[in-house]
């Protein structure tokens, strides 16, 4: 199966970077990278410039480029692949149902990027467009940071790093002087050289031939974390660039996990909760108690009186201890604990963590076997994360009761 080649660019008010990049990919690269589609992320004004200068049916520069260098070939590049930066509301429509290139309802399309909120919208749009493209199997990206505002270039590079695989490329197009001068209206070197004119700073008329230009790509070295971070991020991380960055950092270095036994507002009921990367991990009462026990032994594993540190065998704990913790939760009693399949409970806890923050982050907080199996005994388990990454609050009241069973 041949890869689906996609050129994706950020662009502002100078759409020439698109055709310059395309020229370098098709003519200068070896082997050539001929895209099947071109996607551009820009502002509302930038889109109007692209439609007028590059995609106008009769005089558009993109069509001229195709006649010059790819006659008889077809590249999809049209109004629907030009994605306008804007705030969106997520819905369940298919990829690129809106012209923003995201699965969301457009609330406001931006004419320019001038405020902090505009920059956040740009980050989210760039990230979501790349994610939508990479979600389709067999996609190979070539992303360009050459156009738009500096913040757009930064977000393109950062989003690329989060999502890219080994075969994806990131570049900046380099154009020799004086062809960067907007007065020349230079878009790419045509097959038949042309004379371009401009006025220098001294007011003198100047001319230069397009055969004197040098257009080439600078390939950028960047971490490609798509395979490491995986494709199972929670829905929030599929829409929010900021949250995706949080999870990427958490995948590299374990975040702080907070375990609390919190009173509900205006209620005498208590619920156990886990908080990770700003998200609440949804556990049943029994799952919370099991995890809380492991969190306590992890947090206090350096207690000199503990024989096995963070190791724990929940099945060996007395029913009275479970009943005490159950009463604190005001939940249902844990019936027939001796018959519980604790391995399946550990699996459900891991699934809940993965649903909240993705499997790459959840992996830091797995409950796993440790040590050697003793004759006639179950192999012990432990929460295998550094104790300083586990914060506990009001469940500290449980520790003396649990500790008594472990020493």
Specify the helix fraction band.
Answer: 25-40%
So, the CATH homologous superfamily of the largest domain?
Hypothetical protein VC1899 like domain (Restriction endonuclease-like)
CATH topology term of the largest domain? Rossmann fold
Number of helices: 13
What does this structure look like?
There is one protein chain. The protein folds into 2 domains: 4-176 and 214-247, Rossmann fold; 254-406, no CATH class. It starts with a strand and ends with a helix. Helices cover 34% and strands 20% of the residues. It is built from 13 helices and 16 strands. The strands form 5 sheets. Strands 3-2-1-6-7-10 form a 6-stranded mixed β-sheet, with helices on both faces. A 4-stranded mixed β-sheet has the order 13-12-11-16. Strands 4-5 form a two-stranded antiparallel ribbon. Helix 9 crosses helix 11. The chain has helices spanning 16-28, 44-53, 61-69, 116-134, 150-163, 226-229, 235-239, 241-252, 285-299, 319-329, 342-357, 359-362, 399-406; strands at 4-10, 37-42, 82-84, 86-90, 104-109, 139-144, 169-175, 195-199, 205-209, 215-219, 257-263, 270-276, 279-281, 367-369, 381-383, 390-392. Mean pLDDT is 87; it is low at 91-103. The chain is of the alpha/beta class and 407 residues long.
Task: Outline the secondary-structure elements.
Blueprint: E1 4-10, H1 16-28, E2 37-42, H2 44-53, H3 61-69, E3 82-84, E4 86-90, E5 104-109, H4 116-134, E6 139-144, H5 150-163, E7 169-175, E8 195-199, E9 205-209, E10 215-219, H6 226-229, H7 235-239, H8 241-252, E11 257-263, E12 270-276, E13 279-281, H9 285-299, H10 319-329, H11 342-357, H12 359-362, E14 367-369, E15 381-383, E16 390-392, H13 399-406
Parallel strand pairs: 1-2, 1-6, 2-3, 6-7, 11-16
Antiparallel strand pairs: 4-5, 7-10, 8-9, 11-12, 12-13, 14-15
